UniProtKB/TrEMBL annotation:
Species in which this protein is naturally found: Panicum miliaceum (Proso millet)
Annotated keywords: Glycoprotein, Leucine-rich repeat, Membrane, Repeat, Signal, Transmembrane, Transmembrane helix
PANTHER family the UniProt entry points to: OS04G0122200 PROTEIN, OS11G0490200 PROTEIN
Protein name in the entry: Receptor-like protein kinase
GO cellular component annotations of the record: membrane
Length: 553
């Protein structure tokens, strides 16, 4: 065995001089060059493992002489060209693995007849074209059929469903269906109790999802149908698939409600129904999905308040409910989910009221997006407890009051977006301590005062937008402001100075010499100084007048 040994260079031609060799295991190395045709002389070879290398060129015609080979593993290389017909005729082959190469061409119509012993077929991530051969149904021992990421066209032969594989995937092709035609392969699959994975996302399948999917194996664990043109409603009977761990229906044209029968998926870990036209409320039965880790409902027409039962999703790490029409106060149920550690996205809905101080309980969350809702009130100081946040998006609401200085304690924050709110007061100097902050958006608020000088030291700051506020004073020119072409200040009439690239007006100053020291006075300071001088003159004159009167007595 020579696999996983960091071998380099090419496969030596002299290896073909061992006709009694039974297994050649060269996988997971750094081998380059082509597969030598001399390997076709290994007449006793049963296993050829050269996968996971950097081999290139075409598959030699000579490999078609390996009449005893059962395991043909050429995947994860840079092989190109077509597969020789002689290789498709090797009747002893059990595992046919050529996935993740640059192969092209069509599959022989009689392939399944010529290799009846096939069990594992991996053709994924290549450039094969044409139709899927119906003859594959004659290779009745197939347990895994992976045709994904190619350019297969036409309809999936109905007979493929009779194979009863454990895994059937033909993702990312151009397989078609229209109406009821093209979906016939589903019906025979309902007799397959061993089916574990069925995936046909990223194709050209149109029409309604057949109701017969409800009769697929209760042992089915993965069902991916997304990124097609499927319309109609989600079959209510889909709840019969009680073994599902992952269900993906994304980016289709599905309508109607989310069936309450989804509550039967007690083992479900991930649910994607985003990018459809689903409507209605989220059924309370969603709270039964106690193993759910990923919930993606965005870009639909769901409405109403969220069910209280969401608090039962104690394994949930990521939830995206954006771009819907949900209403009601901010759903506090999420604050009970200590498992939330990746994304909570509730943006582009109609949630109203304040952001509750209980937001502090999201101590593991990386991204919080509640942009473009109807939230109001002041920002809670407790936000600073969310120490793991990398992105905080609160823009497009009606938050008011001042910016809490406690936000500066969120030292891990990379993006902070508070654009288009009603925030007022000055920008806290303390924000300058956020050394990891890369993007800060404060535009379209009612902020006043000066740009904090501490911002000059925010070395990671890449984009700053404080446009359309009431800021005044001089724009800093040092530190990150020395190259401020990615900083936006427009709509603040009181700002001046800054680098020349900003094209802001010069700050109006006047200077006068006092000894060796030059004193610069602003217009308001000059007025104050004149008033003070006039008052001093009046005091002096009164003093001199009083003194003169005293001397004359």
């Amino acid at each position: 065995m020579l696999d996983k040994n960091h071998l380099t260079g090419g496969i030596p031609s002299w290896l073909g001089g061992y006709p009694n060799l039974v297994a050649l295991l060269l996988s997971r190395n750094n081998l380059t060059g082509t597969i030598p045709p001399s390997l076709g002389n290994l007449s006793s070879l049963e296993a050829l493992y050269v996968h996971t290398n950097q081999l290139e060129g075409s598959i030699p015609e000579a490999l078609g002489r390996l009449r005893n080979v059962q395991w043909l593993a050429l995947f994860e290389n840079r092989l190109s060209g077509t597969i020789p017909e002689a290789v498709f005729n090797l009747s002893s082959v059990v595992a046919f693995g050529v996935d993740q190469n640059d192969l092209h061409g069509t599959l022989p119509p009689n392939w399944g007849n010529n290799q009846p012993n096939l069990v594992f077929v991996y053709l994924g991530v290549n450039h094969f074209t044409g139709s899927v051969p119906a003859s594959l149904a004659n290779a009745t021992m197939i347990r895994t059929l992976d045709l994904g990421d190619n350019n297969f066209t036409g309809r999936m032969p109905p007979a493929i469903g009779t194979l009863c594989p454990g895994i059937l995937t033909f993702d990312a092709n151009k397989i078609e269906a229209s109406g009821t035609e093209g979906w016939e392969f589903i019906m025979p699959l309902t007799n397959c109790s061993r089916l574990r994975v069925l995936s046909f996302q990223f194709n050209m399948l149109a029409g309604e999802l057949p109701g017969s999917v409800a009769n697929l194996s209760t042992h089915l664990q993965v069902f991916y149908t997304g990124f097609n043109q499927i319309n109609g409603m989600i079959p209510p009977g889909i709840g019969n698939l009680v073994g599902l761990q992952k269900l993906q229906l994304s980016q289709n044209h599905l309508i109607g409600a989310l069936p309450s029968t989804i509550g039967l998926f007690r083992n479900l870990q991930a649910l994607w129904v985003d990018g459809n036209q689903l409507s209605g409320i989220i059924p309370p039965t969603i709270g039964n999905l106690t193993q759910l880790q990923l919930l993606t409902l965005d870009n639909n027409n769901f409405e109403g308040p969220l069910p209280v039962s969401i608090r039962n999703l104690q394994q949930l790490s990521s939830a995206n409910l954006s771009n819907n029409a949900f209403t009601g106060p901010f759903p506090k149920e999420f604050f009970n989910l200590s498992s939330l550690s990746y994304i909570l996205d509730l943006s582009d809905n109609n949630f109203n009221g304040p952001l509750p101080p209980e937001v502090a309980s999201l101590t593991k969350l990386a991204y919080l997006n509640i942009s473009r809702n109807n939230l109001s009130g002041s920002l809670p100081d407790t936000l600073s407890n969310c120490q793991t946040l990398l992105g905080l998006h609160l823009d497009g609401n009606s938050f008011s009051g001042s910016l809490p200085t406690s936000i500066s304690e969120m030292r891990g924050l990379v993006v902070l977006n508070l654009t288009e709110n009603l925030l007022s007061g000055t920008i806290p100097q303390e924000l300058g301590r956020m050394n990891g902050l890369q993007e800060l958006y404060l535009a379209h608020n009612n902020l006043s005062g000066q740009i904090p000088g501490t911002f000059q030291n925010m070395n990671a700051l890449y984009h700053l937008d404080i446009s359309f506020n009431h800021l005044s004073g001089q724009v800093p020119v040092r530190g990150v402001f020395a190259n401020s072409t990615r900083f936006l200040f427009i709509g603040n009439d009181g700002l001046c100075g800054g680098t020349t690239e900003l094209h802001l007006p010069a700050c109006k100053v006047q200077s006068r010499k006092h000894g060796n020291m030059k004193i610069r006075l602003t217009p308001s300071e000059r007025i104050s100084m004149r008033d003070a001088a006039d008052e001093l003159r009046k005091i002096r004159d009164r003093y001199l007048t009083d003194l003169s009167r005293a001397n004359n007595l």
